[in-house]
Amino acid sequence: MIHLILETATLQGFVALYHGEKPLGESLLPLGLRSSQFLFAEMDALLKGCDVTPSEVGLVTCGVGPGSYTGIRVAATVAKTLSYSHSIPLVGLSSLSAFVPNECSHFYSLLDAKIGGLYLQGEEGAPQLLSWEQAEPRLRERSLFTPDAALIAKLEKRGFTAEHIQPSIAFFASQGLEAHQQGRCSTKGDLDLIYLRKTQPEEELKSMAEGKKLI
Fold first, then answer.
1. pLDDT, tens digit, for every residue of 149-206?
2. Beta carbons within 8 Å of 165's beta carbon, 6+ residues apart
3. Which of 86, 87, 105, 119 has the most CB atoms in a 10 Å sphere around its CB?
4. Which residues on neighbouring strands pair with residue 112, listed in sequence order?
């Protein structure tokens, strides 16, 4: 089965094509929050380079956040369109699941949630959004990994050491394949996106509403 994998929610997006567990091609998108604008061109080049048409794809796995609000929506829109147009089963995975160390069983993968604090996910489950105050006691207990060099610098200022990590595309692909085999997929092009925090305009509207209540 041909398996297409898409991720643009984080600083290090990627697109990949697998045949079962065998990689046919992998491409890291340009580093940064604008990587999503390169997704379609890279995906098209990868499919053509592997001589695969969209109708031949048997599974699409997509990162659904947390991360960039726009980035989450770009990969999800492409994945949902492919799924709906060609009746392809669709799997959504936490984007943090792509940043799992090969040889570490007690860790947190981290992303910068800016004013929201930190997105983090350990080996035991779902991603979380925590303020720095909430997160710091937990960070002392585990090895820390992130694809974000700027976040590493922030952590160092707070006395923490984190390692830079590239996405484990093979692991992400295997998680998507496993979810499909277990029936944890959509056949209608549906995805539940993981935002975890409100956008800046939503936060501003909330502040304005709370201010009016105080008047």
1. 999 999 999 999 999 999 999 999 999 999 999 999 998 889 999 999 765 554 555 5
2. 99, 101, 109, 145, 146, 147
3. 119
4. 118
Cα 147 to Cα 42, 43, 47, 99: the distances in Å are 20, 22, 26, 8
Q: Which two tokens stand for residue 182?
A: 């277990």
- Residues shown for the chain: 215
Alpha-carbon torsion angle 111, 116, 120, 125, nearest 10: -130
> Would you give the distance in Å from CA 150 to the centre of its chain?
18
Question: Distance between the two ends of the chain, CA-based, in angstroms?
Answer: 61
On whether the CB atoms of residues 131 and 197 are closer than 8 A, the answer is no
| Spatial separation of the C-alpha atoms in residues 10 and 6, rounded to whole Å | 11
Q: Which domains does the chain have, with CATH numbers?
A: 2-97+167-204 (3.30.420.40), 100-164 (no CATH)
